Amino acid sequence: MLESILISVKVVLPLMVFMGLGVLIRKRSMVSQSTIKEMNQVVFKVLLATMVFYNIYKADLQQDFDGYLLAYAAISVIIMLGILVAVIPRFIKDKTIAPVMIQGIYRSNFVLFGLQVTASICGSDNLGMTTILISVIIPNKDHTDDLELCLFSMTRKSTYRNYEILIVENNSEKEETFEYYRKLPDRYPKARVLTWEKEFNYSAINNYGASFAKGEYILLLNNDTEIINDDCLEELLGYCMRSDVGAVGARMYYEDDTIQHAGVVIGFGGIAGHCFVLQPRGTTGYCHRIICAQDYSAVTAACMMVKKEAFDKVGGLTEELAVAFNDIDFCMKLRAAGYLIVYNPYAELYHYESKSRGLEDTPEKVARFNKEIQIFEKRWPDILRNGDPYYNPNLTLKSQDFSLRRI
């Protein structure tokens, strides 16, 4: 009896500790659930072998207990080292490694299988290899340094590989820009350049690019963006593949790691504005809304994935809105058509626009901006009058930090 207890303590207990270590690793989000499952299956096999070993050699163990225990312990150590060797590469490659942000119960991880998507709150491996083609539309005028960073981050960081890139050239003036375009096919085979020859109109340029898109999903993307997480496209696609979702937006940061976009509320600034602007990266915001995937009335088109079917159904972006509010108007059209607009904080990008960019500081810009305000107000009077359904009326519209409205 004493020898049986010693075997349990000296052999079985270390195995159970190893299994417990696997559970702890999973809870710390260091490796995926499937990896831990594989580890535990091997450990169970070792545990079963322990029981069989003891029953077969029970008589011998009673005569030479220390010798057999030493031999078995050596075999167990070798097996455990084999497990570690098999698992360590998964530590490095696993896509569910936790970022700086808290994941907790707020994040859903998607597994993409062709046209099928499943979600698991507890997490799962994200394969990222599907038959779904994403058409990435990037308007560009000169600024090849920005465009290069955008393309480089997508091609080098993204684990999702089935996409095409449509660069819509519009009114570039520098010869170096066209020289850059000529070299693109060799450097970025998935990219091709389309030429827009009319005056600048953000809506019309994107609609023009979409007319060449071959993908089932369109990603509207600014040229001054940089992908942060390698599963950014999968995160956007996971929600966008839902039948009730029309468009999905990302969490975007300024260069100094403060928030540039975390959803849009209708009514901020009189018309619409981004949520939690200038909040430091790492904060979670009011009721943790910065890190929660959720429905909003709108998201920015600086990075917006949309179903091609839904894009065509609502007629693309409204070309009357050449510069301002066209993305907000587009989301409103999608919602009117019965689709949801989702903000996914786990698709993360830098957006290198200046914090002072967009100031209407000339008479022509002021006139254009005021005209587009009038167009938007005429098109969507109800939500401006009744308030954003995704925003608490007890909170202020004078700030984007979700603070209480002052009476």
- Report the major sheet: 10 strands, mixed
Average predicted confidence as pLDDT: 82
Query: How does the overall form come out from the CA principal axes?
Result: globular
Structure summary, number of beta strands: 14
Unreliably modeled segments: 23-34, 90-102, 115-129
Order of helices and strands: HHHHEEEHEHEHEEHEEEEEEHHEHH
Strand content: 15-25%
Q: Percent helix among the residues? A: 40-55%
Count, helices: 12
Query: What value does the Rg take, in angstroms?
Result: 27 Å
Cα separation of the termini: 78 Å
Pairing-aware structural class of the strands and helices? alpha/beta
Architecture blueprint of SSEs:
Layout: H1 2-27, H2 33-56, H3 58-63, H4 65-93, E1 109-113, E2 116-120, E3 134-140, H5 144-157, E4 163-170, H6 175-187, E5 191-196, H7 202-210, E6 217-221, E7 225-227, H8 232-240, E8 245-253, E9 259-261, E10 264-266, E11 272-274, E12 294-296, E13 303-307, H9 308-313, H10 326-336, E14 340-351, H11 363-379, H12 381-386
Parallel strand pairs: 3-4, 3-6, 4-5, 8-14
Antiparallel strand pairs: 1-2, 6-13, 7-14, 8-9, 8-13, 10-11, 12-14
Helix pairs in contact: 1-2, 2-4
Describe this structure in words.
The protein is an alpha/beta fold and 407 residues long. The protein contains 12 helices and 14 strands. The strands form 3 sheets. Strands 3, 4, 5, 6, 7, 8, 9, 12, 13 and 14 form a 10-stranded mixed beta sheet that branches. The longest helix has 29 residues, at 65-93. The chain is globular and about 95 Å long. Mean pLDDT is 82; it is low at 23-34, 90-102 and 115-129.
